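[audit] Reproducing an earlier prediction to check determinism. Same input, same settings, fresh worker. If the tokens differ from the archived copy the diff job will pick it up downstream; this log only records the rerun itself.
[audit] input (151 residues):
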Amino acid sequence: MAKQSAGILMYRKQAGGLEVLLVHPGGPFFARKDAGSWTIPKGEYPESEAPLDAAIREFEEETGYRPSGKFIPLRPVKQKGGKVVQCWAVSGTLDPAHIVSNTFELEWPPRSGKKRTYPEVDRAAWFSLADARQMMNERQTAFLDELETLV
């Protein structure tokens, strides 16, 4: 069975149009990557956890903010590695300057014996739909297309 992730696509309506909140993965693998590496806040979950509960938990773990409101289910997408991502859209007003992410430990450089701690998410930002399509994981852009038709 393919791995599954659940996430939240937070959006807001601005004078210039619809904007979405994306996060940039922390750690050394993404330190020099920008366009194409941003994502919705998401994470894997066990079969015993309801996907929407997991999406809300993951959003809170990665941003320090617990989303609430009317969650709009979006069609799942399958990423290149085979992982299926469930997503819900919700309106919100999170200030990216105040996110607080959980951390993970990684041996870096590889085989050095040195363990380092990194934030799971090192930054967040609001993007117009056009900019988000350039910045985010290409398979997740389907969420933007669906959101645009629903909101």
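[audit] rerun output stored. Observation attached for the diff report: The chain is about 20% helix and 35% strand.
[audit] end
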